[in-house]
Write a structure and sequence with these properties.
The protein is of the alpha/beta class and about 500 residues long. It has 13 helices and 15 strands. The protein has 2 domains: about 375 residues, Type I PLP-dependent aspartate aminotransferase-like (Major domain) (Aspartate Aminotransferase, domain 2, 3-Layer(aba) Sandwich), CATH 3.40.640.10; about 45 residues, no CATH class. The strands form 4 sheets. Strands 3-9-8-7-6-4-5 form a 7-stranded mixed beta sheet, with helices on both faces. A 4-stranded antiparallel beta sheet has the order 12-13-15-14. The chain has a two-stranded antiparallel ribbon with strand order 1-2. Pyridoxal-5'-phosphate (PLP) binds next to α4. Its EC number is 4.1.1.15. It is an enzyme of class 4 (lyase). Its cofactor is pyridoxal 5'-phosphate.
Length: about 500
Amino acid sequence: MASSNPCSNSHESVHSSPFASRYVQNPTPKFVMPENSMSKEAAAQIINDELMLDGNPRLNLASFVTTWMEPECDKLIMDSINKNYVNMDEYPVTTEIQNRCINMIAHLFNAPLGDSDVAVGAGTVGSSEAIMLAGLAFKRKWQSKRKAEGKAFDKPNLVTGANFHVCWEKFCRYFEVELREVKVREGYYVMDPFEAVEMVDENTICVASIFGSTYNGEFEDVKVLNDLLMKKNKESGWDTPIHVDAASGGFIAPFLYPELEWDFRLPLVKSINVSGHKYGLVYAGIGWVIWRTRQDLPQQLIFHIDYLGADQSTFTLNFSKGSSQVIAQYYQLIRLGFEGYRKVMQNCRDNAMALKEGLQNTGRFTIVSKDIGVPVVAFCLKDRSTHDEFEVSVMLRRFGWIVPAYRMPKDAKHVSVLRVVVREDFSRALAERLLVDIIKVLAELDTLPSKNAAKATALAKDEDAANDSAVKKTAEETEMEIVNAWIDMITKATKITCC
Ligand SMILES: *Cc1c(COP(=O)(O)O)cnc(C)c1O
């Protein structure tokens, strides 16, 4: 999609910022493809140089997505980078490897499979595509049933918590399903199963439970949801199913909390998605969706491609894609095995706990993540009267750390939090350094005037100016001005000893 945003400086020529290296003296092409070729060295250098300004992925604590794999697997990935996954006939081994992954993950999620049964699922680009597919399956199933009963089938809805990931909204908008949100509230940031079941009616295609909330890593109680919904289904005669969005939790719970019932052990759970590229420990570009049984995936959605007499079935949104990620997932599954995954996840949990305790010891933070959940540490300032979480986030950036600050969903929007995702490559040593840097930031913030005070002054100034010129600034312009003034102030007022 070409949603190019030709920056704000539209007066700039299409070539800007002359790039001077030993290879080229020409400006960097930005909008129009250059007329002539350049040498491969020059092209590589230009791009490399610009990419240096991206953040360091390893220090990006905002993301759940894998940033480190073993060199052996990096090599496997490069070796298969030229294989199109969709050419199932040409690359039958890759197809077979994907099917093995689906089987292994289905077993991990306790799908009701006999020894020789083949699991039903699909490899996708990530959980988002997986969720589109699972949602489509529910919608189609619901529609077919309504049609058969001679009932209206034009107002499907889906119930989920306000802590949903944006891809659920995407699904609902793209595929015309009403999104019914269960509100969250201060102190309770996941879907309340009682309220969710209240919202279910005959047009509900499924209840989506988030197993590992993006906001604070918390697991929703799928078991309670299942039990309440069983009761409601029995009373109403409906058969509303559950989907579990286990994008991050799907590779945590089976290893750390095997006794926790959230998966196909619960009868109403008909499909589950998981991101292979989160705690599945593969680089970006792989997700999985698994259905409970063949009956839970409407056959009309499956495309059968006849390749030289062999029937290949596919259910994906796109056609071509790389094979590397599928191969990398298989590598991790067999390289680590259950034991290896458990150790990695235990380490992540231990490091998260160490960070959590360190933060608690400062006496300055309230922890809003849970000990049982995805290994993230989400925390907010106890005292926000002078400084807020956004300022902590900005100041940590100067040490190289990317720690996001964001607001909780609607109805708890006044709560903002900082969140650190503890991934495999975030070692204890890094956790300790981060803590040291957070303490430095706190000490520094204590010496700075409150942003609220700066805000008040700026607002007053702004009002004066507005009165003078009778031109009102938009709220956004005012906000930007305050932020800039504030950043200016801290840059001038202080010198941080960076390490
Ligand atoms: C990350 C995430 C998604 C989206 O997953 P992608 O693999 O990035 O497409 C969906 N739901 C939840 C709960 C997530 O954490």
